[in-house]
Amino acid sequence: MQAPSELSIAVSFDLICPWCLIGKRHLDTAIAQLRAERPDLSVNVEWKAFPLIPDTPLEGVPYREFYIARLGSPQAVAARQAQVRAAAQDAGLTLALERIETFPNTLLALRLVRYARQAQGPLAASSLVEDLFARYFMRGENIGEPKVLRQALQECGIAAPDGEAEVSLHHDLDWLPALRDPQEPHEPRITGVPYFAINGLQGVSGAVPASVLLQGMRRVCE
Q1: Which pairing describes strands 202-205 and 6-13: parallel, antiparallel, or unpaired?
Q2: CB distance 84 to 97 below 8 Å
Q3: CB-side exposure of 4: number of CA atoms within 13 Å?
Q4: Domain 1-51+184-222 has what CATH class?
Q5: Is the Cβ–Cβ distance between 176 and 115 less than 8 Å?
Q6: 79-to-19, 38, 132 alpha-carbon distances in Å
Q7: Torsion of CA 67, 16, 110, 121, to 10 degrees
Q8: pLDDT given at position 106
Q9: Where are the domains of the chain?
Q10: Closest C-alpha to 216, from 31, 5, 38
Q11: Buried b / exposed e across 19-28, counting CB within 10 Å, b at 16+?
């Protein structure tokens, strides 16, 4: 059997998930390593929304209070954040969790990522995902806020449809695509993110090291 000349990686994710950011960084590393081995190989990444807490109020909720209620105590929150920071550090990331004031509703941001993919292709979508992760986890911005999202679109060079740039995105969503594609019968049932589906043949769950993702991609290429 001839090795494939193209690799498609579908990543199920949510922008509030630090493990998805960590997983993205490991994926970037794995893809760079694979391209060094196979410069003839085309690798395309598709970001697929998997909203974890879609019923979060549109205006968001206080970040610290949310996690204390979710994890049970300030001590539990501190322990979880220490775990996340350590994993991020291993991936070459420095998170500024102390800057985050608002736990956001990500539905609008996720729809914008999908819009970016449909309007300008997968590279534009990946650029927007990277920008939104940085705004939330490094700069503490509220990525549920329409003004912040408009700035992200502009910085990534992604144009909204004519006349839509100045509207309140929360109340004018008709121009945005639906959040998710209809699920194909053969797709795996995803229970958590990040989840990496490689050419629909190899599934990898969690923020695994780059070496694990690289192994999965090599297996499909073989």
Answers
A1: unpaired
A2: yes
A3: 16
A4: alpha beta
A5: yes
A6: 15, 41, 25
A7: 180
A8: 94
A9: 1-51+184-222
A10: 31
A11: bbbbbbbbbb
Q: What is the pLDDT of residues 24-67, one digit of tens each?
A: 999 999 999 999 999 999 999 999 999 999 999 989 999 999 99
Total residues found in the chain within this entry? 222
Q: How far apart are CA 120 and CA 129, in angstroms?
A: 14
User: Among the residues of 91-173, which ranges form H helices?
Assistant: 107-120, 122-137, 146-155
Nearest 5 degrees, angle CA 90-CA 11-CA 77? 50
Exposed, middle or buried by CB within 10 Å (0-12, 13-18, 19+), for 15?
A: buried
pLDDT (tens digit per residue) in 72-88 = 999 999 999 999 999 99
Nearest CA to 23 among 210, 216, 219, 215?
210
Report CA dihedral (77, 134, 107, 189) to the nearest 10 degrees.
-70
Instruction: With beta carbons less than 8 A apart as the criterion, state whether 104 and 137 touch.
Output: no
What is the rounded CA–CA span in Å between residue 26 and residue 29? 5
Amino acid identity at 15: L
* Helices first, then strands: H and E counts in the chain: 7, 6
CA distances from residue 89 to 118, 145, 177 in whole angstroms, order as listed: 33, 28, 35
To the nearest 10°, the Cα dihedral for 47, 50, 56, 59? Answer: 10
Element (H, E) at 215: helix 210-221
